[in-house]
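Student:
Attend to each token:
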Amino acid sequence: MSSVAGTSSVARPLQGREGSGDPKRAAALNAAPRQQYLDLRASVHRKLLNRLNLEALAQADRSRAESEIRSLLTELLAEEGAPISLSERETLFGEIVDDVFGLGPLEPLLRDPSISDILVNTCKHVYVERGGQLERIPTSFQDDRHLLRVIDRIVSGVGRRVDDSSLSIRRFGARPFLMADLMAKKAITADMVQFLSACIKARVNMVVSGGTGSGKTTLLNALSCYIPLDERVATIEDAAELRLQQPHVVELEARPANVEGKGEITIRDLVRNSLRMRPDRIIVGEVRGEEALDMLQAMNTGHDGSLTTVHANTPRDALSRIETMIAMGATNLPERAMRQQISSAIQLVVQQTRLSDGTRKVTAVSEITGMEGDIITMQDIFVFEKMGVTQDGKVIGRFRATGVRPKCCERLKASGINLPADMFEGVTEVR
């Protein structure tokens, strides 16, 4: 109790009005005790972590471990002889518990439902994304060793290696986004949802295209909800992110090589092996390399309705990227043959974009219509047109149906799905 009582005498100048006429002096007075606490916290935190056997504590009964941590913390604070309030003591205790049982300073961020991404550039530079906007936050690690220890804890269970002291965490909500959620966020219109859901049910092959962090996986998850429950689906990912709701799902995940350079399982290996598992559809979380050719061949050989994503800024760029990836694994395949593979395998490209205000929208739904000479032909079915930006930075725009009736409507009709003609003519304003 003496340390708590002592704190009030230290903190008292902060509550006074000395220097209130000079903002810089007032700020300096306010900052001094805060820095004293940060220095004390860093010192005690470091000593406590050095004295504790973190691995043993993590395996021990939690209540006993917390009791041991609290006892040692009290001892170290007494050694320091510095005043610290009860709330600061509890904060420090919570940070140590997070280090033992979780991911240290990242734990409060992981508990915050408003955060979608956590980006750690260095031990002192941490950013988060809230509502589509990146912001730097005061969270930090003690040093690079502390950060590497947290990274080791993350990767040790999945057979990954640590190459550097930087970290990126993509957070997903308690449940996957549905199309209703995306419509509520004005990321897509009801007509677009009706069309895309019909295409999924009619087993139209589809590629979701977009930049990093544009929401490709979120959209892919939402689209997968329209796959019939009686179908067998194989999902293939580098790191498991998809959360399909169907009961008959085979989840396959790539694996890096071990320290001896052995044991690697690539996306291409998984695509090839999945064909032996009798899937009705194959969903590849993202094609990045030579597995693109195997994916297209699967789409062309009885696995209609398959889905994947690709990093690209426009539907046309998506096809160029896929062509480049095919060339990585089939150097002897002529350019025209590659494009014929693409045009026959893929029917739709859905473009997902992260706009300047942080919002994410489906900015194009484009249909591949065939080839003219050596060129793959496409037509836009739906587009998002940016009209301007408000004073507070919000994007103003509209979703517009181009008036083109898709060729795949014949396929939908053959599957018993009839879409109203006027759905390809509407305009929806967004602001």
Remarks:
- The first helix runs from residue 2 to 15.
- Confidence is low (pLDDT under 50) at residues 1-20, 24-29.
- Residues 1-101 form one domain.
